[in-house]
């Protein structure tokens, strides 16, 4: 396992105890702080994985208020940090309160060096293991959703949410522009649930005429209307035991919204022309590209239905906001269509890769898929070019692929934000950035910035 930094921050206002603890941890790079301000400054600058925190800090050393406030700030800035609170013998309640607020563990004075070292070592091992797991997940070694191709942190977060809620029966609302992959995520919710062996039934409200939609959803009895020659189950009934995916729910007519709301509340359906109440056990997932809040204000979508279908809401980012996904998906589609059409290509040309990254993709993944498919059909050379994709050629030199340029852009932006947040106070800005004042001055001079 790769060794991480072994920094330990001791937050303690007693100089004698500070010195004693420093000698206890020779294997660590020990940092010290006497109060909350110093502790936060050390946290920003050194990002220590482990902190021992005395709850009795000035200006109120006889109470735990300042120590608990320090803990809260640490958890906000670095929630993965393992904080071990050190308290007095009669301070157990505050220690338990600290653990509830996010502290890893607590230890009561007087300090036993061997026991405290054991707690710190164990906390460090856990921190290291969690860090390794996060790194593996960020490289794509974590659980994957069937049918989803992505390497962006934005979609990784979405995948983690899907994996977390899939085992539940919570009604889920997927929001996102057309072509962002809402049905792929809906199928993933089904495949990762306990209903995976049952049916996944999908229906698109925008693709079915309003006069037919009710019978499609709820079914109908024989003779219910002209042409109803036999009893027919609706899509919801067919999904019994499985998952029902209602796509483009924002286009559902008002006349059907009340009936759908009743189904979601009671989990029973009534076929068109029938009187029997038929119980249905189904997990419901809805999706739309429309702004339901605006539709509610306009009076074209029921507020009660909105709250029923959005027990959990997932906002899917458009392709233009997924770092690196356009090229990743473009390569996957190129491989897929090349095999299907028995063609061979040596990937994309430089201008094609630049165009894939620069284009805004208003049609999202669906548009990208169509453009790659057309290019595979029409291309005559061994590489797919920007012209084959029908995309504007981009000067590759304008794209910030150089690591130094990317770093400089990030540094310049971070400097501007920190100085703005600090209202021009350079000492405070340096603390916010976790750097020394000389380093801050050097960066300001480097980028010719005037605070």
Describe the structure.
The protein is of the alpha/beta class and about 450 residues long. About 45% of the residues lie in helices and about 15% in strands. The chain has 18 helices and 14 strands. The strands form four sheets. The chain has a five-stranded parallel sheet with strand order 2-1-3-4-5, sandwiched between helices. Helix 10 crosses helix 12 and helix 17 crosses helix 18. The longest helix has 26 residues. The two termini are about 45 Å apart.
Task: Provide a compact summary of the structure.
By secondary structure, this protein is α/β, with parallel strands linked by helices. The chain is built from 18 helices and 14 strands.
* Total helical segments: 18
Average pLDDT works out at 87
- Tell me roughly what share of residues is in helical segments: 40-55%
Order of strands in the sheet with most strands: 2-1-3-4-5
- C-alpha end-to-end distance: 43 Å
Coarse shape: globular
């Amino acid at each position: 396992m790769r060794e991480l930094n072994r920094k330990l921050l001791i937050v303690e206002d007693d100089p004698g105890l500070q010195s004693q603890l420093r000698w206890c941890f020779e294997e660590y790079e020990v940092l010290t702080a006497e109060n909350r301000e110093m502790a936060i400054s050390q946290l920003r600058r050194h990002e220590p994985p482990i902190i021992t925190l005395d709850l009795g800090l000035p200006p109120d050393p006889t109470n735990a208020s300042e120590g608990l406030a320090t803990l809260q700030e640490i958890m906000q800035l670095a929630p993965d940090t393992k904080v071990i609170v050190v308290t007095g013998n009669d301070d157990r309640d505050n220690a338990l309160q600290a653990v509830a607020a996010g502290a890893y563990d607590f230890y009561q004075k007087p300090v036993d060096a061997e026991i405290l070292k054991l707690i710190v070592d164990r906390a460090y091992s856990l921190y290291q293991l969690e860090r390794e797991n996060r790194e593996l997940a960020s490289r794509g070694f974590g659980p994957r959703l069937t049918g989803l191709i992505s390497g962006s942190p934005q979609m990784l977060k979405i995948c983690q949410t899907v994996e977390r809620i899939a085992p539940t029966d919570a009604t889920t609302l997927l929001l996102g522009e057309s072509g962002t992959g809402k049905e792929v995520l809906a199928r993933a919710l089904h495949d990762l649930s306990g209903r995976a062996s049952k049916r996944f039934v999908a229906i698109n409200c925008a693709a079915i005429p309003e006069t037919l939609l009710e019978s499609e959803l709820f079914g109908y009895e024989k003779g219910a209307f002209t042409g109803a020659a036999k009893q027919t189950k609706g899509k919801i009934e067919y999904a019994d035991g499985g998952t029902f995916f209602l796509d483009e729910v924002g286009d559902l007519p008002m006349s059907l919204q009340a009936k759908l709301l009743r189904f979601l509340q009671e989990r029973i359906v009534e076929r068109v022309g029938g009187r029997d109440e038929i119980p249905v056990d189904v997990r419901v997932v809805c999706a739309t590209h429309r702004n339901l809040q605006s539709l509610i204000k306009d009076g074209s979508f029921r507020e009660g239905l909105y709250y029923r279908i959005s027990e959990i809401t997932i906002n899917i980012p458009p392709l233009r906001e997924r770092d690196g996904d356009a090229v990743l998906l473009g390569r996957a589609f190129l491989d897929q269509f090349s095999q299907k059409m028995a063609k061979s290509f040596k990937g994309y040309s430089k201008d094609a890769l630049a165009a894939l990254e620069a284009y805004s993709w208003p049609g999202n993944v669906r548009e990208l898929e169509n453009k790659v498919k057309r290019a595979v059909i029409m291309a005559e050379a061994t590489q797919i070019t920007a012209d084959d994709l029908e995309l504007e050629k981009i000067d590759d030199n304008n794209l910030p692929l150089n690591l130094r340029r990317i770093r400089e852009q990030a540094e310049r932006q971070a400097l501007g934000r920190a100085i703005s947040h600090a209202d021009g106070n350079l000492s405070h800005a340096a603390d916010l950035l976790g750097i020394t004042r000389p380093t801050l001055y050097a960066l300001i001079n480097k980028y010719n910035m005037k605070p």
